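Reminder to self: tokens first, then the designed residues, so the page reads top to bottom the way the pipeline ran.
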């Protein structure tokens, strides 16, 4: 027998009632928040005390969070962009840079300048991925590509990639060539520019030192500087970590950056094996033969060393620093890749200067993890620390040493001690064989370097021998002074009272 209840509520009514309640609550919440927003907006104009206190309580946690995230004052807003230069482009210039970070950096500056000279559209440069370091980084992994394009748009039109009609997908093949090294404007105007009317796109597959140091229009020399000092800005990730390294070092006092160019690739390329074991010398020789673009194969190490063509060893660097008067308390940052021989070769240097540090010892491994196996990004961190240091000392005059030297000149002729390696090797050998006592050795080293500390002087020009003359990016004199004081400032070393005032203390 089925029992029925007259008072039972139909099952369809319950969900409908709950839905109505839920809908009412949602509408009420929206209405309340809308009223609150209007009241806060009115309070900005009316400012009654109740609402002022309420808005303060709402915003205070946000302010505290901002202060916690940004302990330093916010950077000034970037200057407004200059209007883009309006010109008819003669074609597209594609470039593939070769070498390490600083060789590519100088090449990028040169290629922007060539594009400006020839009224071309420059494609964002490709970086070297096939060299000894096998770094897979693209341009945008190291440099702020948006800043690069925007900051130079009043001079050159730069695009991230070629238009689709010039892609291989449509069967297009760009004309490839390496421009002649150390070329001037005449070469590019007479021999390179006509190629664009024929091919539309020209691909420079090598870019190292393809623009002359001297004899270039002043406006173009200044553009090279502008790209180098303003247009090429590292990515926020690199800059943040680089500035953290600088802050850590500065909190502990003045610091020296020693660019200890004693990595395996440097020794193999140069053929310098002074201080190495026979097994190490053989290993370096095998590496030199393994890379076909390293042209010199049979090298007599001691001959190169006597001519000042070898990087200082860690042992020689320690004696050099001590002779200059640096004491055990000196804080030294080693800017380099992995030292050949590792801690065994660093031991004499560390014994003389216990306060030696590297990025790997100053930062948590997690912070460096994103840069591992990216040698150019690691080099960018060293670059930022090098230009910020109190004193910069390279042990070899490679691309980083030269580009950092020029950057430090641009920043106000900051002290850079540039070893005269030929003279230094002579003095080191005399001291180590007992012929030259320490006091005489130290005095001779100081005298040999008193005019090699980054003082202002004019670039040395050697006609028809550009590889032997002073490198533009090591001393971009056209960009270091303005007006009538330039002649007084850029004299030969030691010929000006300005130079004497720059010497001061070593750190």
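Designed residues (507 positions):
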């Amino acid at each position: 027998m089925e029992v029925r209840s007259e008072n039972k509520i139909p099952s369809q009514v319950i969900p409908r009632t709950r839905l109505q309640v839920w809908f009412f609550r949602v509408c009420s919440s929206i209405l309340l928040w809308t009223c609150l927003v209007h009241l806060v907006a009115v309070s900005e104009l009316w400012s009654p005390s109740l609402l002022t206190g309420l808005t303060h309580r709402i915003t205070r946690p946000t302010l505290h969070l901002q202060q916690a995230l940004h302990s330093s004052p916010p950077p000034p807003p970037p200057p407004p962009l200059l209007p883009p230069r309006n010109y008819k482009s003669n074609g597209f210039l594609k470039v593939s840079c070769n070498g390490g970070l600083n060789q590519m950096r100088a090449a990028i500056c040169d290629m922007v300048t060539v594009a400006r000279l020839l009224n071309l559209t420059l494609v964002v440069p490709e970086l070297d991925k096939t060299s000894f370091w096998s770094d897979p980084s693209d341009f945008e992994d190291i440099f702020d590509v948006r800043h690069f394009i925007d900051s130079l748009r009043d001079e050159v039109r730069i695009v991230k990639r070629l238009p689709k009609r010039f892609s291989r997908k449509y069967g297009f093949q760009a004309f490839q060539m390496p421009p002649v090294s150390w070329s001037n404007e005449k070469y590019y105007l007479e021999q390179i520019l006509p190629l664009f009317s024929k091919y539309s796109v020209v691909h420079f597959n090598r870019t190292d030192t393809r623009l002359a140091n001297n004899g270039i229009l002043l406006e173009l020399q200044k553009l090279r500087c502008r790209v180098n000092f303003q247009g090429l800005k590292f990515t926020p990730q690199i800059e943040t970590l680089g500035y953290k390294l600088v802050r850590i070092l500065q909190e502990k006092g003045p610091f020296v950056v020693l660019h200890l160019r004693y990595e395996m690739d440097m020794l193999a390329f140069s053929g310098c094996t002074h201080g190495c074991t026979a097994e190490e010398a053989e290993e370096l020789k095998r590496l030199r033969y393994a890379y076909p673009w390293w042209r010199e194969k049979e090298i007599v190490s001691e001959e190169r060393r006597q001519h000042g063509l070898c990087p200082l060893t860690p042992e020689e660097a320690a004696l050099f620093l001590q002779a200059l008067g640096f004491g055990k308390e000196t804080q030294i940052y080693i800017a380099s890749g992995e030292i050949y021989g590792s801690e065994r070769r660093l031991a004499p240097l560390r014994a003389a200067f216990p306060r030696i540090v590297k990025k790997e010892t100053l930062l948590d491994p997690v912070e460096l993890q994103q840069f591992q196996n990216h040698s150019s990004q690691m080099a960018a961190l060293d670059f930022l620390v090098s230009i910020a240091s109190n004193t910069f000392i390279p042990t070899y005059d490679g691309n980083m040493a030269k580009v950092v030297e020029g950057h430090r000149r641009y920043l106000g002729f900051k002290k850079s001690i540039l070893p005269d390696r030929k003279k230094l090797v002579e003095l080191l050998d005399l001291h180590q064989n007992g012929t030259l006592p320490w006091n005489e050795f130290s005095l001779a080293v100081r005298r040999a370097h008193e005019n090699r500390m980054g003082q202002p002087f004019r670039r040395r020009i050697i006609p028809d021998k550009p590889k032997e003359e002073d490198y533009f990016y090591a001393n971009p004199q056209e960009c270091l002074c303005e007006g009538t004081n330039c002649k007084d400032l850029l004299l030969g070393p030691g010929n000006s009272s300005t130079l004497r005032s720059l010497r001061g203390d070593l750190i």
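The chain has 21 helices and nine strands.
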